[in-house]
Amino acid sequence: MICLAIDTSSRTASVALLQDRDIIYSGFLNDGRTHSEKLMPMVEACFETSGRDISDVDFFAVVNGPGSFTGVRIGVAAVKGLAHAGGKPVAAVNALDAMHYGAGLFNGTVCCLVDARNAQVYAGIYREGGLACPYSASHINEVLDKLKGFDGSILFAGCGAAANSEAIASAIGPCAVFAADIHPEAAYAGKIAFDYYEKGLLTDYLNLSPCYIRKSSAERNLESKN
Length: 226
Known about the structure:
Blueprint (H helix, E strand, L loop, with lengths): L1 E6 L5 E7 L2 E8 L5 H16 L8 E5 L5 H18 L3 E4 L1 H8 L6 E7 L4 E8 L2 E2 L4 E4 H8 L6 E4 L1 H5 L1 H8 L3 E4 L6 H13 L18 H9 L1
Helix pairs in contact: 1-2, 3-7, 4-6
């Protein structure tokens, strides 16, 4: 089985091609260009370098959020189009789960954080390999309050950890470990997608949608005005 995985949910963009869980190709860019400009050239480079073709893909995987609203839409729209054209199923992978996979075998609590600006974060808290609390979109202090009940070291991963490092260090102290360079990469999403495939959790392009967790600032502003 071959899976093409895509992530455009953050400031980085990545594409990966996996066969039976083995990574055939992985491409990653953080060059400041918009995802709409670089995504399809990255997909083309993936097939050109790997010697495979889009027709070889058995299913697709996409990081469907939370993250950048525009970035998430670009990735989801691209995979919806590719899956529709090829008549292939898709796996929607949460960005926080992909980051947790990237954290590897850290022996302790893992808190994956995506920066949502102004001390707001998307958070996923994991313990013993599984999600310990529901995904959340909240102020960093609310996340830290939840973590005060956990013992041992806590790994803080992602851009949200970098943006709020001072608040984290102040609240958690020496138990805080930082891995801010972990992103929800396509290769991680592809690995998770094979678990979904084996469990029969793939869907079709019609049911693929973004996972925003919270409303956009424009929607919130409109609601407040009304």
